[in-house]
Amino acid sequence: xxxxxxxxxxxxxxxxxxxxxxxxxxxxxxxxxxxxxxxxxxxxxxxxxxxxxxxxxxxxxxxxxxxxxxxxxxxxxxxxxxxxxxxxxxxxxxxxxxxxxxxxxxxxxxxxxxxxxxxxxxxxxxxxxxxxxxxxxxxxxxxxxxxxxxxxxxxxxxxxxxxxxxxxxxxxxxxxxxxxxxxxxxxxxxxxxxxxxxxxxxxxxxxxxxxxxxxxxxxxxxxxxxxxxxxxxxxxxxxxxxxxxxxxxxxxxxxxxxxxxxxxxxxxxxxxxxxxxxxx
Length: 280
Known about the structure:
With 280 residues, the chain is mainly beta.
């Protein structure tokens, strides 16, 4: 008989500043690494004041991780050392595998509302020094599955009800869904029993196991075969992340995540020497 996942932890995060002075909600980071493996960090931004975010994230390095930037509202200009540049617009996302090393920047533009997230996903040791890869996914490429009158699900990565997301060849076989549940309705998602599963209310109020929670509340689940959540008297929008645990040591320093302190030290030495970038 399928086992419903129980909520292990409710995570509210804390207000933080990053980049050149961006105000955001750091939902989870260093302190939750063990429980949230393979996910490392989740930042949420939601503001109608450009002064909260306009200074952005100027040029900075990454190694050993994948970063996912997903926008529900707003616009972000970006560029990287691979030569990619462009904009992330409403409904679009960027999935970047830093691998052996990449340098990039993300600079938000003023808009009526800036709403979205950035997620960091760890890479297994065997792929940490792989060639970097960049994926720019437009709104029209995101797969949309509708259950009329109940929910609509945007599949960023992975498979949902036979629909496959546009991003493939990812390190931890993740599932990333953007779910809108209609007022008073319930959404159910089958999960791989041993995956790490995390849900985050990005907008609206959600009913999770009998209690209503506001936006920017996160839920880490115990192992099991499915999760359920519902909308209250209005629609709720929930991001759901699922991924296979790596069960590997983590050595983390700023924007670089390796497996050992020696590897981490080498990365920063290479930054100082100008030998950090390995890609052509």
